[in-house]
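> forwarded from #structure-qc
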């Protein structure tokens, strides 16, 4: 969660924050911080009203398969699945409401995440019996691709309250300018042959 000193979830801070502490610090007019138990617990209202957390998710899942019965007791199965996801998160702490953000002139953090993956299975099966003989053959291939991407940038020290574009940040820690990419592909083949005679001998 986000919300300045003693940040956590709004629910967690509401439980931990003492009901005897004032809502705001009379000397600063910011939402007060509860130090009565030796820990700095932010007033949950500071996170509720002082932090803007906008998260957008777009997820698409697709799956399908076909089964074909071919001559000579042969069947063909093809399965394909795909997953496409996208995520954007924009976290801003207002320096006019939260004391932690006021100390650094406001903070902003922008994160994006993308993902694309697909899996394709192709299977041939032969299942045949004659006299007392039985043969079961399976052969298949599996192809898989995975792609991901992550980026993050942020900053603090915005000269104008309400305008939190990263380009206007006075301080941009290098730890918040992250990139990233992950890409791999897989291809595999497999097969199995089973034989029995009179349903007893392999």
């Amino acid at each position: 969660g986000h919300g300045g000193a003693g940040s956590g979830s709004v629910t967690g801070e509401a439980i931990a924050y003492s009901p005897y502490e004032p809502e705001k610090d009379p000397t600063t007019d910011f939402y007060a911080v509860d130090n009565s138990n030796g820990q700095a617990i932010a007033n949950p209202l500071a996170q509720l009203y002082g932090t803007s957390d906008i998260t957008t998710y777009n997820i698409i899942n697709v799956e399908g398969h076909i089964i074909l019965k071919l001559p000579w007791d042969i069947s063909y199965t093809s399965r394909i699945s795909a997953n496409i996801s996208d995520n954007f998160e924009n976290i801003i702490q207002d320096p006019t409401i939260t004391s932690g953000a006021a100390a650094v002139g406001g903070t902003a953090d922008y994160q994006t995440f993308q993902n694309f993956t697909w899996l394709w299975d192709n299977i041939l099966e032969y299942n045949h019996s004659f006299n007392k003989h039985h043969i079961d053959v399976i052969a298949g291939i599996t192809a898989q691709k995975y792609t991901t991407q992550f980026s993050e940038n942020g900053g603090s020290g915005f000269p104008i309250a309400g305008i939190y574009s990263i380009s206007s940040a006075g301080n941009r820690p290098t730890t918040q300018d992250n990139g990233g990419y992950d890409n791999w592909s897989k291809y595999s083949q497999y097969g199995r042959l089973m034989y029995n005679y009179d349903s007893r001998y392999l």
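QC bot note: Helices lie at 10-16, 44-50, 99-103. Residues 1-7 have pLDDT under 50 and may be disordered.
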